[in-house]
Structure formats: structure tokens, C-alpha cells
Amino acid sequence: TCLRDVRFETFHEHRAALEPVVARRAEHVIREVARTFAARDALMLGNAAGLGAEMFRAHDSLRDLFEPSVTELDQIVESAASCPGVLGARLTGAGFGGCVVILLDANAGPSAANQIAFEFERRFGRRPSIELFGRDAGPREVAGPHME
């Protein structure tokens, strides 16, 4: 009854019956569910590189299968991927476009931000807004009255 519950093997068997755009969107959702669990596992193990890899995979899937990205966001992710100390990057936000969340080593922040901004400005003629944030106590399970 819910796309998130469909196994990839089942989707693959029936993919040809779907319109191409619907099939791409469904593939993204099904794979994103698996990526979310993989990202959670990486977080719980303290594996920041594993989380970052899932972020890059998520962005690629969003860009190619779900298609909410724009050229500017793809440029930021591509630039981030080439920066030392960047572990992952993906678009996020409501609607089409949005912003990019970048996971990086704490010491890489200023140099990565400068490189990303430089490459963006060179390509688009304007400087992007970049905010650097610290971290909190780390991953943990969150439970509450509305969570299963």
C-alpha cells in the first residue's frame, strides 16, 4: 500500500509496466529508503565516511531519477566532492532547487567553502551563500510520542 514498502526486486519485475518518469521516481524512493537505513547504520557506527558516501549517492539519485535539482546545486555538490576533507554532499530543501548540505571534516570548512564559492562564482558570476555549522553530541535514537 506504500511505495516505501516495495522491495527493489518487486519493483524491478514490474518496472516495464510503469511510465518511464514514474519508474524513475519510484526507483529513487525505493533506493532512498535503503540509503536512509544505510546512513543510519553508518551514523550509529560512527562511520562519517559511510554517511558521506550515502549522501553523494542520494544526490546522484535525486539529480538523475527524481530530478528536483538545478545546475547550481549540482555544481556545488561536484565542487564539494573535489575538496579535501569533504565526506558527502546532497541537495536538500523543499521544492525544486533548495540548498546543499555538506558533511566535512571540521578542519576543512573554511578552505572547502572558499573553493566551492570560487568555482560557483567562476561558473555563474555570483557568489553563493555558505554557512558553516558545528556538530552536536552525535548520533542517537530519538523517540517521542509520534515516533514508532
Polypeptide structure, described:
The protein has 5 helices and 2 strands; from the N terminus they run H-H-H-H-E-E-H. The protein is mainly alpha-helical and about 150 residues long. The protein has a two-stranded antiparallel ribbon with strand order 1-2.
Blueprint of the fold:
Elements (H helix, E strand, L loop, with lengths): L7 H7 L5 H25 L3 H19 L4 H11 L4 E7 L6 E6 L4 H16 L24
Cα distance spanning the termini: 18 Å
Largest sheet: 2 strands, antiparallel
Write down the overall geometry. Answer: globular
Helix content: 40-55%
Task: Write a brief caption for the model.
The chain contains 5 helices and 2 strands; from the N terminus they run ααααββα.
